[in-house]
Design brief:
Helix content: 10-25%
CATH class: Alpha Beta
Structural class: alpha+beta
Low-confidence stretches: none
Number of helices: 2
Mean pLDDT: 85
Shape: globular
Number of domains: 1
Radius of gyration: 17 Å
Distance between the termini: 54 Å
Strand content: 25-35%
Number of strands: 5
Length: 136
């Protein structure tokens, strides 16, 4: 009989120990503590997607650079370029994440782009999704 074993991060075994902070910073004390590695990974990916390249001082290549495409025409070439930026960045900075679905819903008349991002975490098998609205 085969068993489907799941890896559990050591940090997740201590439920009262904070792992990081949530986004956005709008809790009563500014920061809301995150207690699981799965949730913190989600916020790390959101941070990556919303960061431009050269925005982090000691890591200038970090970021998906989505805002650099904000005022360009929403054509298939633009969407393909965004897809490439996101996929290569996730492969580089989050090697334990496998993108299962990445879709772009564009409305060129309103200059609106909705990015739907689904992923699976390699070592735990858990999955999650992120939706980001970009309105130019």
């Amino acid at each position: 009989m085969a068993y489907n074993l799941r890896n559990i991060n050591v940090l997740d075994l201590r439920p009262s120990t904070g792992v990081g902070v949530a986004l956005p910073f709008n809790a009563p004390g500014v920061f809301r503590t995150v207690y699981t590695t799965k949730e913190q990974l989600k916020y790390n990916i959101i941070n990556f997607l919303l960061t431009n390249k050269r925005e982090r001082i000691f890591n200038p290549t970090f970021g998906a650079d989505i805002r650099s495409k904000l005022f360009e025409q929403l054509t298939q070439d633009t969407v393909d370029g965004l897809d490439n930026l996101i996929r290569t960045g996730i492969e580089r900075y989050f090697p334990n994440v496998v993108i299962t679905n990445l879709t772009f819903n564009a409305d060129p008349d309103k200059n609106l782009l909705v990015i739907q991002f689904s992923y699976t975490i390699n070592n735990t098998g858990e999955s999650d999704n992120i939706i980001i609205d970009i309105n130019g």
